[in-house]
Amino acid sequence: MKTGFIFPSLVSADAGDGEALNVSSMLDKGESSAYLSVGGSRAPSVLLDFGIKTTGYFFVELEESSGDELVIQYGPLRDALIKTLIVPMPADGVLWVDEEYIALRYMKLSIRSKAVLPSPCQASIRRIGVKFSAYPCVYRGSFRAADPFWEKLWRTGAYTTQLCLQRSRFASTFRNELPEPHRTFVNEWRSPYSDHVIFDGPRRDREAWIGDIRTEALNIYYAFGANETVKSSLHLFHALQESSGLIPGSAASRQAFTEYNLWWIISIWEHYLFTEDRAFLDKMYEGYRSLMDWIEFRLDSRGFLYNDKTWMWTFPREGYGSATQCVLYRALQCAARIEEEAGERERVEALERLAAHLRRQLIDTYWDEDKGVFRDVLNLEDADVVLSDVNCYAVVFGLADREMSERILSYLKAEMWTPYGSATLDRKLERAVPAVGCTHFQTYLPGMSLTDEQTMSFMWPHNKQIWPFMNGYEVEARFLADQVYEALELTRRCWGTMLAQEPGTYWEMIDAENGEFPLRSFFEFSKGDALNSACHGWSGWISAILQGYALGVRPLRPGFRETLIAPRLGAGLTEIEGAIPTPHGPISVKIDGDERQVRLKVGHPEAVSVVYDFNSRFFEGKRILINGEAWRP
To answer: What angle in degrees, to the nearest 10, is found between the helix axes of 278-297 and 322-342?
Structure first.
């Protein structure tokens, strides 16, 4: 766990047309100083490495200086120093700390004169670094295995999510472009639960998104138990709810993502399921009911909800698409459980009927029996492709039955797997001609007349590319189907690819062609920073999946009062242990064994009852011991 003041290490120093002396002395708490000076046109520079991506408030202390400027270039990769911070040299002996955090792994420091004409300048720097800005999480959860790769993978996912827990007042990389009321809200809004909220990424967009909150919250429950940050994030969108009941998809830019409203309902229920915080559920209840009224009013005769856009935002998917209906199906299930807690029996029955009707209609409308997958709406001509998200959702949310799930997962592996993870499409689109009536691209690029080449460029982030966000749903689907080997192999491909590269956190997207971090803008027409995020919270939720499925610990009743322990082990992951924080205390599980028997050591609070499920191929024919005693079903 990182806290406090963080010092980097030295990568290289270049004296330029001056001097760069004793540079390593500024990288610790010693009293000696580095000396930089320039008298010509090329300033000295020092490249520094924090060892892993971090976020923090830049600090510097000078022993003496010419009173000119420090130039700080920084970014996630050595070849991507994409941001610049200009700092007036502080007074001698003053530890100067910036008031707004930066996100970086590498930092390049140089000095420059404030004079109009080139002029000598110098600085003796005693110390430099960042003061950690993310929420000071305690890692109450854990996951370990005989192979240390898995603990590193788990910890990296938790840390990736931690870096996305930042103070709400720092929201939006594009703050200067926001309308004034939005900027005022960002600056003034405060939650009674925490100053920190869940951002999608600490550099871009630095914004709370309802769709991101769901997966990041799962990591928070499992790794930290820092539930106050989830409450502040859900409360943030409650504060933004319109009188109609609709909630914006993003908290600062207020983008309208109809589907993301469904994730808010799911997240409210899951918060109660993991925490049993009845006071917070009651506080959210009126807003939840208002949103449900908005949703139900807009359902068509099939029970479908019209959607404007999804997380795959560069693709024109407006309409009654199947992925959105899958999320709606899960939201209706969660809404029924919320109403059950509220004692509204008639509402529970009505919501369950609506969910059952929706499932039948969804299968009738979108199931492709020949291919064994669900189809979806894609408003492009000649776009005969299969999308991953609807099929992963259908399995995870229980919409697909067992046979359908097996066919879906077989198709995904055969058509979408790459050496670096599972892609968004079964084939790459080679042209992008909008269907008649499609206005998607005009919405994003108003007034522009796009060529086919430009449209393809706009769509590239999702055009058969690898997104860890959706790979997480596929890994979860495979664990649920007891395809443990495939779940672990996909995890190694996707998250192992990122682990082996910089900056030490999980990315928003992986280039499917080479497995690298794409150093190109997501949106070539953007005037601001639209580079792929090198630290994206929803990509970190593989950690929660490992605890919830490989270790097998999941709540069946609110607050873990009844807990399922259903381990899913397989080749390469047969000896594991971990802990999960609950409102009543930690649940711990340790599993090892041999070909004849499996031993479990389980610890849990008295308030928690445990239900075991060993209905997995790994346990077939083996004797199972729990805390030394033979288990009998």
So the answer is: 130
- Give the pLDDT confidence of 419-458 residue by residue, as tens digits: 999 999 999 999 888 999 898 988 887 777 778 888 898 9
Tokens matching residue 62: 């000078």
What is the C-alpha separation between 424 and 418, in angstroms, rounded? 11
pTM of the model: 0.96
Cα–Cα dist 470/466, whole Å? 8
Going by C-beta distance under 8 Å and a sequence separation of 6 or more, which residues neighbour residue 95? 59, 60, 61, 127
41-51 pLDDT, tens digit each: 899 999 999 99
Q: Which two tokens stand for residue 585?
A: 């205390």
Do 312 and 388 meet the contact criterion of CB atoms below 8 Å apart? Answer: no
Cβ atoms of residues 563 and 135 within 8 Å: no
In three-state form (DSSP H/G/I as H, E/B as E, the rest C), the secondary structure along 30-42 is CCCCEEEEECCCC
Answer whether the bond into residue 434 is a cis peptide, omega within 30°. no
* Alpha-carbon distances, residue 241 vs 185, 200, 244, 419 (angstroms): 13, 20, 8, 43
2 — pLDDT class (breaks 50, 70, 90): low
- H helical segments located in 500-623: 542-545
